[in-house]
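Supplementary notes for students who missed Thursday's class. We covered one full example, reproduced here. Read the sequence, then the structure, then the short commentary at the end.
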Amino acid sequence: MFGRSRSWVGGQGKSKNIHSLDHLKYMYHVLTKNTTVTDHNRNLLVETIRSITEILIWGDQNDSSVFDFFLEKNMFAFFLNILRQKSGRYVCVQLLQTLNILFENISHETSLYYLLSNNHVNSIIVHKFDFSDEEIMAYYISFLKTLSLKLNNHTVHFFYNEHTNDFALYTEAIKFFNHPESMVRIAVRTITLNVYKVDNQHMLHYIRDKTAVPYFSNLVWFIGSHVIELDKCVQTDEEHKNRGKLSDLVAEHLDHLHYLNDILIINCEFLSDVLTDHLLNCLFLPLYVYSLVSQDQSDERKINPQVSLYLLSQVFLIIHYQPLVHSLADVVLNGDLSVFTMQTEQSAHKSSSNAGVRRFTKPSESLERSLEMSRHRGRKRTQKRPNYKNVGEEEEEERGSEEGLEEEKEKAKGTEASSKASRTSGDKEEIEMVVMEKCRISEVSSLTEQNITDEEKSAAAARSEGQKSRPFLDMLYNAMDCDAEDYQALFVLCLLYAVSHSKGINPELLERIQLPVPNQERSSYSQVLVERVIRIMSQAAQPDGKVRLATLELSCLLLKQSVLSGSQCIIKDIHLACLEGAREESLHLLRRFYKGEEIFLDMFEDEYRGMMNKPLNVEYLMMDASILLPPTGTPLTGIDFVKRLPCGDVERTRRAIRVFFMLRSLSLQLQGEPETQLPLTRPEDLIKTDDVLDLNNSDLIACMVVSKDGVQAQRFLAVDVYQMSLVEPDSKRLGWGVVKFAGLLQDMQVSGVEDDSRALNIIIHKPTSNPHAKPVPILQANFIFADHIRCIIAKQRLAKGRIQARRMKMQRIAALLDLPVQPSTEVLGFSQPSVASSLPFRFYDQSRRGPAFASVDKVPGFAVARIAQHNPSSASSTSLPSSGPTGPADSVTASSASTHTVTQSQTDAFIWSDLHCIQGLAGKAEGACFLCQRMTGTVESGFRAPCTRNRTRPGA
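Structure (token representation):
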């Protein structure tokens, strides 16, 4: 144990093991020999710092003596000494990079305490780096963010000095809150949130008293400046050519709101009060709300009403802090212009500079200046902190020029700071007085509204709305007029939706003006709102309507929230009649575009699928910057169809279909009626993969399915009214089959294979709700049959089945639109069932045994050989097609002279006979039926036997 002594001073020789205490001693020896940075030893020092970092990370997990040596030799002082020599960007970058890696990988608290001791880390934080270098800036802010992740109740004391009121990690970080690089701004927000989450009262009091007001005031000004820039971008981009910049500005505003919400949900009362005061009085009210009614077009600090509505919607959708959003909603829905004039008049007597309290104004001094004044108040000497603007100024010049001025300016601004503090407290008192006055008014009105009927209450609410001046609410209702366009109406609907769904707004405020509150029982609703919403629906159903689909869907949402109370609908008859009138108008509009073509069927089903699969999400809608621009009708902008006007007959047809769907669904829901006609193909009625079906007496064709990647599988092809299926025998039950694939006939493409007359290439596309998207195949394979006769039969059967399926659906659409349904006609020789017949797809439980595919589209040439009933001596007989639940079916008993005998192996557990009428199909032989002769035009020698079907010829 004591055989080999170790000395801290030893280790001057290079160790073979780079991860060891001896190697750290060698690195220390290198640092002591190279205390001055030169061009010759710069690379050596960088490699030495890297090696020391690796050893420290290794020692954190394996050897605690490594940190003992590092602390005893005060090796961090060497790092700081290298930085202070201004050794160039290369050394600074490498040092910041290694420090970042070091603190990221340290896991033990003891090791972290070693590194943070002696205050060397704070000295590195306040070092004057050249922040004009982007790489240095990136590594520096990343280093601060890494340190902030290590903050807790214990480590915060290494950064916050309670005696000197210094918190370099926080104050140096927030100086970059408005850095031009977005990644730096995001890192600053992360650092501040990590600081605010530390539950240390002394530190939080310091932030509130020394940094909160200057930081939040400058942050609010920075956010407002971005908003004004966003508004200018909207005004100058009428042709949708600058959407990239607009999208970046909208994304930046969303980031700001999420950051503000993250601060507020920390529930730090010290910070939330200051932040709420600045947001309300310096940003939301004077810039967002005041722009709704301001007529002063020359005011540069004013934005367009549609931009204001858009941004307010984002505020209510993202921020849920109750004191903030409730006060803001109270002003928008219940306030008047006195919220600005009262504050101005009350504060006018204090000082001329403070006359406009609720105005969007620039702070009197920069954040850096405010922090320096706060930090050095009461101290003799100052030291300027770095930001990205000070590029390598000499420290001696700064101290000489500013040291004398600081004391004078400190005295001059002492009174200003005190007046600012008193002004802040005075503003809070004034806000509280306004809120209390409004609460008294609401209490008096609530007492008078008791013990009256619902009709009297709604009438009283209407009278109160008419008597009280509510310019902001009146602006919202007036902006819902869509006679010319729905530019502002869409934002008003979004704002009302966001306000009604905000968790921070007291429901009593919404009930006072009868706005809908989700999932709450009510007996009355706002007639003004409902009438304007129904008017939007009626305008959307007009042929020349300028209402976008997103606006119509939002109108439907608000109407349902207004008139649905639990499971009951409280809509009045007159409003329901108006809604029915709008639905009838949409029906007439769709009839104008109805065409009995395949493209109409595809559009009809695509629009219904899109409406059901992609309902409108207001949160996502308010993230889209494209709706800020005036509504356009060209698809070249790339704007989603529901957010723009239609272009061309095809898009007008799509729009008419979607309007019809929305108003029909709304009408049925309000009347409590179920939907029985849509969709045209219900998923529960379709055959699905792995379904087990009874396939006795069914027409099947054996084939080899070769997929695109070369995988082969033996399957049986079966065709129903709407679907084609690939099945294989069920090993458990005779006569039953397991579905391995099922696809809609209407989405199928069938083509022959050039080199093989026995093969077909079949592609079935996946149904999609986007008509512009490239179709995705769910099946793409070659089907190889036993001979070319079976191949021809399968191709004809699939092609005719596709035509029949599409025609049946078109008849259902005609019945839905109250159009005359054409009588059933034959589709290339196959009769059509009526539209009112039962659904063509069936499920078969384990007890039922019936034909699964003995349907109306049975192709002549197939004969089902009944093994149990095979009788060579029986006479040939023909049974005419008989109607049944699944349509007419052929029942054929073949005679001994015209039927091939079928033998069954005793080892087969399942046999499906697909004997074909080869005699009739091979040529026009004597005895061939008329249908078989019509299907083929070639004569093949060797087949002269009469047709097994023995159908009656024309004229016989």
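Commentary. The mean pLDDT is 76. Residues 201-235 form the longest helix (35 residues). If anything here is unclear, bring it to office hours.
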